[in-house]
């Protein structure tokens, strides 16, 4: 091998390495795009913090999240709409965002730019009809370059974090500007989120309780039917009811004077301690009773679960993913 050829091969080696990195990043990005969309809820975290008598100041509020891909070329080829509500109340919308994601080959990471809405109330529940976003213009959203998140794959998960000092923000009135940092952990069936804010002097302003992230688990959607016995002995029947398995709840009224109510809740339970096995659990509820009247359970991967208490019956069947995100 001539001296000139050796020099040429050595010069080409970094280019080959860059080509390999790009191919790996493309594959990781494609996987991330299949994992990210979904319905998420931290019902299990909230439930077990209560079971373990965690101090009130250290507990997490319940947060329900929908992340749905939307067609919005204005912001890029891979855009997601995020909507969150708290305390299991869909009327308490806490956050609406647009996430635009793309491979960043220079930094060998996935870049996520976060957009907020000007007049967010105009876009409530837009995930149910994403075609409304066709009307969106750039003056209806805003973003801060310093708030971008870089994601990298680590083993079988993706870790994302804001860069540098994070997003500039103001805490209380009259306070100095702070930097708010966000971090994310994404797996095939979970999304953990954390945030913390600092003054310029680096004193902590706010953050996750006890430095524990919000542990959201991805939900599966089920379609259910329910019956409830009326006072005259007849039954009220409903079908086509949708519920998710991370604490989703359905309430049904009977068709009679002074109607009665019966509810069901669906949980895919994973105990964080002890020897109990993970289970898909279907609970029957009555109004004004915190504890379930009764419940049935099945393997956590079950595609159907039912309960029959004579005075009420219910059956829930897994909905194909192609049906989309509704809750």
Give an overview of the whole structure.
The protein contains two helices and 21 strands. By secondary structure, the protein is mainly beta. It folds into two domains: 33-218, Lipocalin; 221-323, no CATH class. Strands 1-2-3-4-5-7-8-10-11-13 form a ten-stranded antiparallel beta barrel. Strand 16 and strand 17 form a beta hairpin.
Structure at a glance:
The chain has 327 residues and is mainly beta.
Number of DSSP strand runs: 21
SSE arrangement, N to C: HEHEEEEEEEEEEEEEEEEEEEE
**Order of strands across the main sheet:** 1-2-3-4-5-7-8-10-11-13
**CATH topology tier name of the largest domain:** Lipocalin
What is the level-2 CATH architecture name of the largest domain?
A: Beta Barrel
Please report the distance between the alpha carbons of the first and last residues. Answer: 65 Å
CATH top level of the largest domain is Mainly Beta
Mean pLDDT: 89
Class inferred from helices and paired strands: mainly beta
